[in-house]
Protein: SHS2 domain-containing protein
Amino acid sequence: MFNILKSFLGTNSILGVDIGTASIKAAEIVQSSPKPRLKNYGILKTYSHLSRPNSAIQANSLKIVEDETAKLLAELVKKSNFKTKEAVASIPSFSSFTTLIEMPIMSEVDMIKTMPFQIKQHIPLPIEEVAIDWIKIGEREDETGKKQQILFISIPKEIIIKYQNIFKLAGLKLKALEIEGLALIRSLVANDPTPTLIVDIGARSTNIIISDSGFLKLNNFTDFAGASLTQAIANGLGISTRRAEELKKQKGLKTGGADFELSTLPQPYLDVIIKELIGAKNRYENNYKRKIERVIISGGGANLIGITEYFENQIGIPTVIGNSFLQVNYPSSIQLVSRELGPELAVAIGLGVKNLS
Ligand SMILES: Nc1ncnc2c1ncn2[C@@H]1O[C@H](COP(=O)(O)OP(=O)(O)OP(=O)(O)O)[C@@H](O)[C@H]1O
Ligand SMILES: [Mg+2]
Structure:
């Protein structure tokens, strides 16, 4: 039942579904050459998380409001007129556990023998309560010899069951689950070997990912994200979070004159995120002796006006907004209405192109 993490989809179209705190996003992807084709997409936003944090789509990892989420997902499928019923969904970083280990290079047979022991050592939860997957992501040689790097991914079975229930209730077939970090690398980096720092700023959490040679090397998250910026504006100006959310989207960081105060209010929170990014970058560079060469920002938070300049100044390396549409073809009938969609749909598109390309 729990081989859902490791599956070959064996289908020629798939719905990538990203259930976030503030919205559900889906991308319908069809097998095609040379690139997978984006057939259709849809986004359903909810503002309820602003006034009542507990009513967010995902209040926390163990309290997904199943029925409510299933209803929203069914509504999105209907509205967007998706034809594909088979889906892949993402598990947010705060609901999964990833760890990178190094071990000697060995045969496949020996790997299978040693894995239960490795898992017991590295996964903090009781083994019967989690589903586990591992991926070989690289090799490295040091004075003690050649080693392989293995990424362990574990997800509580309770979370998997919740996702299965939600998709079933919404009339979809959940074929696989994947952590957001892997989906983001697929849609934003693909095979580009450049050491890259990806920062996905959602409403509730910010994912920090390092990709090198196209592999996930580090996956952290922080609770400072879009909602923290909104809250800072609401508190600073003494206004409602709904109004603060509007102002944040309208004005962003590039404001002068009368709006000066507004533009400075979110900065302390952005600085916390940046501090985490610099910490991850320094750790990686020290451990692996590789320089991170660029930053890619995704998630709804990437659309904050002025964010690339702000990040580039503070971190000191080239920073761009992620464009997940580069990995797919799309018919002219699909209007990519705005530049904002490229970073927002990054997880959904990354999920959809899994095993299809
Ligand atoms: N134009 C904009 N300017 C500033 N912030 C924006 C803009 N558009 C969206 N956001 C912010 O992006 C956040 C939502 O991003 P996203 O849709 O990626 O979140 P999510 O995936 O639902 O949340 P999470 O990943 O944390 O569960 C909100 O905090 C929203 O205020
Ligand atoms: Mg998200």
About this structure: The two ends are 26 Å apart (CA to CA).
